[in-house]
Write a structure and sequence with these properties.
47% of the residues lie in helices and 8% in strands. The chain is an alpha/beta fold. The chain has a single domain, classed as TIM Barrel (Alpha-Beta Barrel), CATH 3.20.20. The chain has a seven-stranded parallel beta sheet with strand order 1-2-3-4-5-6-7. The radius of gyration is 19 Å and the shape is globular. The chain starts with 26 loop residues before the first helix and ends in a 12-residue tail after the last helix.
C-alpha cells in the first residue's frame, strides 16, 4: 500500500508535532491504493504469539495502555451522575493501593467520551485535570442526519467545551467510490471543529473491503483528520487486527509523504488486557514509539480498563479479584 513518490522524508520540512492541515485531494494516489488481504491476515495471525511481555514489563505496558483509553459512556440512559462517576474513574483509573505499589498515582486515561448533552457535567468534573473531553457528533452512529445539522452539531459541541470531536463519515460515499464527496464532507467537518481535534470514525465493518478501508483512511487524512478511528462500537464488526494494520500503514504512508502525524483509535470489541498489548506492539512495530503516546493512539474501549486494573492487581498481590471489584465508578 506504499505510495510511490519522489518526495521522501529526507527532503520534507521538520513537522515536529504540528497538527495535520490536510492537503488537496490526490485521486491518483487514492485509486492506486490496494490491499493484499491474504498477506494482511497472515501478518495479523502471527501477532499474538510473536510478542510476549511478562511481570514488570507487562505491568508497564498495561499502564501505558491505560493512559491511551477514551473512557466512554454513550447510552440512552446516561445521566449527569453516571458521567460524574466516569470522570472520577478517568482521574483515578486504578485503586489507590495498586497505584501506590506501581508508583502510578498521577496516571489518567486519555480522554472522556460522551454525547453532546453530557458535556456540561463532564466539563465540571474534569476542570483543571487537562483530560480532554471527546464528543461524538455528525449524527452518530449512522451519520444520516441532514448535512447542515451535522456541521452545526460539531459547532455546538465545540462551543460547549468539547476539545475532541469524534465524527462519523457517510459510508455510502466509500461504497460508491465518491472520494471527492467524502473529502469535501471531511473538510467541512474539520473547518467546523476549529481548534478541537477531529477523530474520524470510518465504521470499517460497513465499508465492504480492506481496500475501501485503506482508501477511505487516506482521503480522510488528506482532508485534515487528526485521528482515524475504526468503529462507532455499534456495528456488528468493530476493531480487528487486519483493519488496524491497513489503517496504520495508511497513516505511515501519509506521514512518509507529508511529514504530518495522524493518530489511530481502534474502537469496539477490545475488552481484554492481553488484546491491548497486541495492539500496542503492532503500533510500535509499524509506526514506532512516538505513536504510543495518547495524543496519537487511543483505545475506544471502556471495559478494557476493568481488565487492566484486574491484571495489575494480580501483578501487585499475586491473586486475581472478581471483575465486579473494578467497577467504572
Amino acid at each position: 500500500m506504499t505510495h510511490s513518490t519522489e518526495t521522501t522524508l529526507n527532503t520534507l520540512p521538520l513537522r515536529l508535532d504540528t497538527r495535520n492541515p490536510g492537503m488537496p485531494l490526490d485521486l491518483d494516489w487514492v485509486t492506486s491504493v490496494q490491499a493484499n488481504t491474504s498477506a494482511i491476515e497472515r501478518r495479523c495471525k502471527s501477532l499474538p504469539g510473536r510478542r510476549s511481555v511478562k511481570k514488570d514489563h507487562q505491568a508497564a505496558w498495561l499502564l501505558k495502555a491505560l493512559t491511551c483509553i477514551d473512557l466512554t459512556t454513550l447510552s440512552g440512559d446516561d445521566t449527569a451522575g453516571r458521567v460524574n462517576r466516569l470522570c472520577a474513574k478517568a482521574k483515578r483509573p486504578i485503586r489507590n493501593d495498586i497505584a501506590a505499589a506501581l508508583d502510578a498515582q498521577d496516571l489518567t486515561v486519555g480522554a472522556v467520551c460522551v454525547y453532546h448533552e453530557m458535556i456540561a457535567p463532564a466539563k465540571a468534573a474534569l476542570e483543571g485535570t487537562g483530560i480532554p473531553i471527546a464528543v461524538v457528533s455528525t449524527g452518530f452512529p449512522a451519520g444520516l442526519t441532514p448535512f447542515e445539522l451535522r456541521v452545526q452539531e460539531i459547532r455546538e459541541s465545540v462551543a460547549a467545551g468539547a476539545t475532541e470531536i469524534d465524527i462519523v463519515i457517510s459510508r455510502r460515499q466509500v461504497l460508491t467510490g465518491d472520494w471527492q464527496a467524502l473529502y469535501d464532507e471531511m473538510r467541512a467537518y474539520r473547518e467546523a471543529c476549529g481548534d478541537a481535534h477531529i477523530k474520524t470514525i470510518l465504521a470499517t465493518g460497513e465499508l465492504g473491503s480492506l481496500r475501501n478501508v485503506a482508501r477511505a483512511s487516506l482521503v480522510c487524512m488528506m482532508a485534515g483528520a487528526d485521528f482515524i478511528k475504526t468503529s462507532t462500537g455499534k456495528e456488528s464488526v468493530n476493531a480487528t487486527l487486519p483493519v488496524s494494520l491497513v489503517m496504520i500503514r495508511a497513516i505511515r504512508d501519509y506521514f512518509d509523504t507529508t511529514g504530518y502525524r495522524v493518530g489511530y483509535k481502534p474502537a469496539g470489541g477490545i475488552s481484554k488486557a492481553k488484546d491491548s498489548l497486541v495492539y500496542l506492539s503492532l503500533m510500535k512495530e509499524e509506526l514506532g514509539d512516538r505513536w504510543l503516546q495518547p495524543d496519537l493512539f487511543r483505545f475506544g474501549a471502556s471495559s478494557l480498563l476493568n481488565d487492566i486494573e484486574r491484571q495489575l492487581e494480580h501483578h501487585v498481590t499475586g491473586a486475581y479479584s472478581a471483575g465486579y471489584r473494578h467497577a467504572m465508578g
